[in-house]
Amino acid sequence: MELLITGASGFVGKYVVAAGLRRGHRIKAIVRPETDVTGIPWHDHERLELARIDLLRQPTELTAALTGVEAVIHLAAVKSGNFDEQFAGTVTTTQHLLAAMAAATVARLVAVSTFSVYEYEQKRAHSLLDEDSPLVTAERVVNRDEYSQTKLIQEQLYRKFEQEGGKVTILRPGMIYGREYLWHALLGAEFGSVFLRIGTRGTLPLSYVENCAEAMIIAAESEAAIGQTLNIVDDNLPTQGQYTQALKQRHPSPKLYYCPWVVIKAIAGFGWWMNQTFLKGGVKMPGIAVPAKLHSRFKPLRYTNQRAKTVLNWQPKYSFTASLDRSCGDGELLKV
Amino acid sequence: MMAGKIRIAVFGAGRWGRHFVRHFAQHPGAELVAVIDPHGDRLTTLAQTLALPPTVVLAEAWETLPPDLPIEAVVIATPAATHFELIQGAIAQGYHVLAEKPLTLDPAECATLTQAAQDRGVQLFVDHTYLFHPAIAAGHEVIQSGALGDFHYGYAARTHIGPVRGDVDALWDLAIHDIAIFNHWLGMTPIAAQAMGKTWLQPGLRDLVWATLTYPQGVMVQIHLCWANTDKQRRLALVGSEGTLIFDELHLGQPLTLQRGQVGQSTANFPPLGLATEAIPVPTGESLGVVCDRFLTSIHTQTPIPAASGATATALVRILTALSTSLNQGGVAVPID
Fold first, then answer.
1. Which residue in chain A has the smallest CA separation from B242?
2. Nearest to A127 among B146, B188, B304 (CB)
3. Contact yes or no for A328/A253 (Cβ under 8 A)
């Protein structure tokens, strides 16, 4: 197949391009005009075509790039900055992409969403989070971070594209981790050189980047995946404590401090109540002190990849131990 | 997509195979076209007992079936050692397969069959009966609601007096049920296996096995298996930080119970808190009937059923193989990939 991949030089995109090439596809990799890709081992692969397009500022060039493309895997998004910056980088760029796909009559889209669109605060601890779990509502998402807010709007764009004839698969990966991203946000919060670990027994909804990348390519290949929304996590997920311990054995750790989930939950709940009751919400609280944000990162829940495995006939290739070994080793992971 | 009745042949009319014959002979979505078993007298008796119509071909071997017999799916209920060859042949013919557990006795063979079915575009459905038991489904919902809290550990007892198998030991005969249930309820597969056992009846075939499985997140499970014990038990429990879920198959009328409660940790004497017993409602129904229904559904929709998939079957056989290795090495811990 000829696949167009946006965000191709990003953390996940690099692996998705590699997975696509390994499975024999021709790849059109969309990267920003200024991106230097010469350090990425696949940059000169014979089945790879680079397209240097700024999705925000050069929307018309996208239509030409879509010529001959059979499916699009849309990864590009902005994960930091204020709401306007993330809206521009995530929502507006998606609008541009979908308009270009319509103009180029490319219907097949694998849209990469996130677990951040689910409702967490009202969910019971230790219950199952799956594709049928409620999404955070428009009223409640304002208390979540900008990433959740913009990804939720982005999913609405995908639904509209689907109603207009698009053949859409929405993939919602859990926390994607890999060599470039090991001390991740579900373990705790970073304060300068100090890392405050939160919780130890909660299951982590992890997706090792190479496992996740392969699922994205298989989704693009799969007729059965059209119209589906699929959560992507690995098998046999570790707890926060197990992940940290296994990682510390293989990788230098920042200075760690620990706070139990029940303690920080109580502190955040009380602080939020004080702020709302006596200060009319006037104090801007740090992220982990806002219950809606805190619960979305640290509440202990259960996860399943059963639907993705069934629909995609996919099996995460690397176990947790193998994934960490690959991440912390010095083998070249992006060589095709 | 196929429509109408699925034409089915059942291989093996023994203890379990006859139940498949009974179900598919009466199933509105199936047409039983043949029953194959090397024991001719067994076939005759079964045909009389179930009043099978004369259109059902009774044969002592696959090769003696009429070559033009219209078969779309087969049930393999023969001894496990014969499964690989039979199932491989059936898949090659383009037949959908419902196989009795274990799929084979070798994980590599299981993987081969799974891939072959996928390549041929047929359903390979393995009868992990308990995963279709209404109580196991109800228990799964309880767990998914979060009622157990953190998983701590599990235990099960599957003991009775006979029947004693001559082809496999108590581990291979009995353990797969409890392992399948624990895997399903925990949503994980074990990473290490240990087993010890005793033999009284037949050299080389353990009559008693104590199996210990270590799951990710530190969850440990112990399973007691014996076919030479008059204390019949069919009891399985999963213990969490906020309660214990108990499946007692012999507790007729109330097989599934949630014992709520936890150990208080705010004071030094760890008082019990929130103790309550809740009988979990379980719909009535025979698991094998559900298995037959779901097999036919998977054929019509061309979609594998996760609980019966080749991947699930392969994982279970891999665990049994690791337990067997441990058993033969005096109970050492054997890692499972």
1. A126
2. B146
3. no
Q: What is the pLDDT of residue B1?
A: 40
Answer whether residue A62 is part of any domain: yes
Contact A124 B146 (CB under 8 A): yes
Strand locations in chain B (E): 6-11, 30-36, 57-59, 73-76, 96-100, 124-127, 151-161, 192-198, 208-214, 220-226, 228-240, 243-248, 256-263, 272-279, 334-335
Residue A193 lies in a domain: no
| CATH (domain of A136) | 3.40.50.720
B216 min Cα distance to partner chain A (Å) = 6
- Counting every residue written for chain A, the total comes to 336
- Residues B310 and B84: beta-carbon distance below 8 Å: no
d(C-alpha B195, C-alpha B259), whole Å: 29
What does the block give as tokens for B311? Answer: 């991947």
Residue A197 placed within a domain: no
B311 sits in the region (left: phi over 0; alpha: psi -120 to 50; else beta) called alpha
The partner residues of B35 in beta bridges, in order of sequence, read B10, B58
Average pLDDT along chain B: 95
Q: How far apart are CA A332 and CA A328, in angstroms?
A: 11
Task: Tell me what ipTM this predicted complex has.
Answer: 0.83
Chain-centre distance for alpha carbon B238: 18
Q: Which domains does chain B have, with CATH numbers?
A: 6-130+287-318 (3.40.50.720), 145-282 (3.30.360.10)
**Beta-sheet pairing, B151-161 with B220-226:** parallel
SS3 content of chain A, % helix, strand, coil (to 5): 40, 20, 40
pLDDT digits (tens, 9 = 90+) for B59-113: 999 899 998 999 999 999 999 999 999 999 999 999 999 999 999 999 999 999 9
Digit-coded pLDDT (tens) for A173-182: 999 999 999 9
List the single best residue of A126, A263, A304, A306 to mutate versus B (max B Cβ within 10 A).
Answer: A126
Please check whether residue B42 is in contact with residue B15, taking contact to mean a CB–CB distance below 8 angstroms: no
Report whether pLDDT(A286) > 80.
Answer: no
**Cα–Cα distance, B6 to B100 (Å, whole number):** 19
Could you give phi then psi for residue A179, rounded to 5 degrees? -50, -40
Q: Which pLDDT tens digit goes with each residue over A198-215?
A: 888 899 999 999 999 999
Sequence letter at residue A6? T
> Which one of A239, A242, A310 has the shortest CB-CB distance to B304?
A310
Q: Which residues of A touch B191 (CB under 8 A)?
A: 236
Pairwise pLDDT comparison (B210 vs B302), residue with the higher score: B210
DSSP, res A135: B
The whole-angstrom distance between B304's CA and the closest CA on chain A is 7
* Interchain proximity A238–B217, CB inside 8 Å: yes
pTM of the model: 0.89
What mean pLDDT comes out for the span A89-103?
97
Instruction: Give the least confident one: B85-99, B186-200, B262-276.
Output: B262-276
Contact B218 A127 (CB under 8 A): no
> Closest approach of chain A CAs to the CA of B172, in angstroms?
24
Of A9-18, A255-264, B124-133, B296-305, the least confident: A255-264
